[in-house]
Each structure stands twice: as C-alpha cells, then as structure tokens.
Amino acid sequence: MKNTAFWLGLLLGILLSFLASSIFFYYYIYQEIEGLKTETRTEFKSFKSFWESELKEEVLDAKSAVWKLAEEKWKAYRAEQLAKDSLVQEN
After folding, report:
1. pTM of the model
2. How far apart are CA 47 and CA 45, in angstroms?
3. Distance (Å, whole) CA 85 – CA 89
4. What is the Cα–Cα distance from 61 to 50, expressed in whole angstroms?
C-alpha cells in the first residue's frame, strides 16, 4: 500500500510539475513572443507609412539623379573612346 501511494504521489507530482511548466511557458514565453510579433507589425506599419509619406520620393529622386549622372559619364566616356578610335584610324 505504501508503495502504491508513493508511485501515485510521484505521478501526481510529475503531472502538476508539467502543468505548472506549461502555464509558465504560455504566460511568460508565448505571450512575450506574441507581444514581439505585435510590436514588430506595428513598427513595420509605421515605417511603411513613413516610407510612403517622406522617403519614397527622396529615394526615387536620388535614384534618377544617379542614373542621369551615370548616363552623362557614359556618354562622355563613349565620346572619348570614339575620338581615340578615330585618331588611331587616321594615323
């Protein structure tokens, strides 16, 4: 009888321990993960609205300016190469 009570008590202790660890996991860890997800979503939405309202036009303007500068430099380089080629052909 004592042996059965020991094993039942041990089993009950293990079950209560598992239940307590599950509750701890849910309330402290799972809730923290869900909170971080919500916080990340909020930060993403705020950055997206900031991007749409202020940064997007500036980035597109800078991008077009860089492309124009690159095009000008390419045209100058190409003209220089053509001039060199024509000098080589004349000589």
Report:
1. 0.44
2. 5
3. 6
4. 16
